[in-house]
Amino acid sequence: MRGCEFSREDSESCHGFDPRAPHRNGPLRIYGYMNQSSTGQMPEMEEVDTNESNGLAKRVALISFLSLVMLMSVLGNLLVMVAVCKDRQLRKIKTNYFIVSLAFADLLVSVLVMPFGAIELIHQNWIYGETFCLVRTSLDVLLTTASILHLCCISLDRYYAICCQPLVYRNKMTPLRVALMIGGCWIIPTVISFLPIMQGWNSIGINDLIEKRKFSGNSTVCVFMVNKPYALTCSVVAFYLPLILMVLAYQRIYITARAHARQISMLQRAGGAGNADSADHQRNHRMRTETKAAKTLCIIMGCFCLCWAPFFITNVVDPFIDYSVPEQLWAACLWLGYINSMLNPILYAFLNKSFRRAFLIILCCGHKRYRRPSILGPGVTCTATQINGSTHVLNGCSSASKLLLWFCNTRPVPV
Known about the structure:
Layout: H1 8-15, H2 22-25, H3 27-34, H4 44-86, H5 88-91, H6 95-123, H7 130-163, H8 166-172, H9 175-199, H10 207-214, E1 215-216, E2 219-220, H11 228-270, H12 279-317, H13 327-350, H14 353-363, E3 384-387, E4 390-393, H15 399-408
Antiparallel strand pairs: 1-2, 3-4
Helix pairs in contact: 3-4, 4-6, 4-13, 4-14, 6-7, 6-13, 7-9, 7-11, 11-12, 12-13
């Protein structure tokens, strides 16, 4: 009996495999010894080979997908930050400061949070210790919450810029207020992440359950579980309140955009014979403008909700159903939220013509064909008309120029 307990070599000589280290022996050796029939055939070997190949294929697919998400997130957010640093015109727009800070938060998510989550997800084991588990979890909550709050600030900035008069916007969005808003996007997440997590406030009342889940078989897991008060407070601050503000802001922006489109149509009709567009063409153009605005807002809100709503719904529901949400569902919801950090540069920068031009200049080494043209274009002649005592541009200008000059309430000087 003891001859099978001395060492690994003795154990192998007695049983043909080491039960304490099955991964070293491999399933073929185990099944080959245990399940070989009297005829010398091993029927389970083909099934084991199939399971091994399927598992390897899934592992490769998972590694490829996670690597692609991290790589695209790093490159996209870096490109946004470099574009604003190099382009003087982009630095003049206040909204872009929020976009740069957002890109910095998303870049940190892809560098400091995603890699460790990917390693744990692939190996099903946490090897960096309990203290770093708390630090990594705190960074996760801080950076993802900061990203969401930046999206909320961008929506509020656009609301003031489009739905309020220019003077109101200049008074509201002073450099000091922009700095305070960006500072709040970083301070608030710090308060709800590092402070409660490092102090253990999120685990009050569920410490025993957390200890049980830390050790799964022979592996250790970085477990982050929250009690009911922390789940509700964190979710409201990090997601539900910003979501409500974003919905209200973008709804008002869309309504205002429709009103602007109607106003431009009225101004064009008031231009009389100088306006070459027919009434049908004007209506079609207005409908296309409204449809494009609606699609843009739907894409922004749709991606935000699609990426983060599953996680925060699960985060609130899980404590009230005795933490019975499967680990696979948790991982899927969490990485769906991480994907939002990859999409933000596309939604808030790549869809913007000024950013696209700056990207092309960077990627094409400053080729002159991508240099910024004049806002009204070369040799453009604008005429004006009086409506209700104010001067409006009508002929010889693009619709974007008309809307810009109308919105800024400037009196154009005839060329």
